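Below is just one:
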Amino acid sequence: MIEVAGDSLYIGCFEAEDLAKRFGTPLYVYDEELIRYNYSRLLRAFRYKWLEILYSCKANSNPWILSILRDLGSGLDAVSPLEVLLGIKLGFPKDKILFTGVNVSDEEMLFIRGELGVMINIDSLSQLERYGRLFPETKVSIRINPGFGRGHHRYTITGGITKFGIYPSQIEKAIETSRKYGLKIAGLHMHIGSGIYDVELYLKGLEILLNIATRLGGIEFIDIGGGLGIPYRPGDREMDIDLLGFKVSELLEEFTRRYWEVKLRIEPGRYIVGNAGVLLTRVIDVKEIEHAGEKKLFIGVDTGMNHLIRPALYDAYHEIIPARGSNRPREVIADVVGNICESGDILARDRRLPRIEEGEILAILDVGAYGYSMSSNYNLRPRPAEVLISGCSVKLIRRRETFEDLIRTAELESLASR
């Protein structure tokens, strides 16, 4: 587990500061025990016996983490062809992988459905028409946009007037196209946003899916997507996962009694890996300025928006604590800033912290989801290493990138001599 004990932050059996010394900084650290716990927590919350969890691998696609979830019985929610390919190479059963893309090309569908044999979740009437021409007499799933959504930021709301999904008003056209090509609609899916705490939104969307299912008949699975919120700030409320599981199971059991048995699918990503990740970074520069009557303290670190873009992109909050001495009085207010040449490269703004010295290790918490997976090489900076803690063992699961990794397609010597 990830916790402060005495004067130090521990990840499993290891002091965070010792991990930083051993593997260098910046460093992503994941706790396997927490990943397993979060997965089992979901299984316990949903009593519906035909439940299937499809891990949303866009949250974190490190192969070691995927293999843990595969062994726990998880399927895969994939949003790109290479996510599908990675899942197959890691041994996920093809019938437990669902591809849900947006603006999907014919070439992508030929690869995913034709070569890899994975079901496609259709996002638009155009895609359904093109899919029908390519793969008549096959099974498909349809992504329904129920007309509403929610998220922790407007960029993460996918229901409502957005580019995602087929609207209920378009169902008759979807049925017509499916009949034209002999397609069987085997699944109905929704995903209304990311970072949701409101149980009622899922229930409202599920009722829409079930109503459509009764019109279509023969639906094999209902997929309510992911987006389950987790607490980031101290004092944030948690998603009532038990209530969600109880209410959803209740609706599905009633549907099964009245009509036929359907499988329930959910697609959590953040909920499984979010709190299981920590980004360790070293303080490089402490800068205090006074200008025009204003004072400001900047704590500069050796990571930035290239490694964790959520604060810059979503104004997202991540708790930041010293790896050692986090119980010190929080006496200063500072911005924690990265080493990228952008004014927006701010990891924490006006944050109350202990007095921090250069050379200290800071821990940025709850970065297991959409941390490394959204990282980049902006400013030609390499991405961090990743390590996995399994109790009292630690494994390097992705090495730190090198200069050669970043320019491997260039023939530097020949370019230099031009």
The chain has 13 helices and 20 strands.
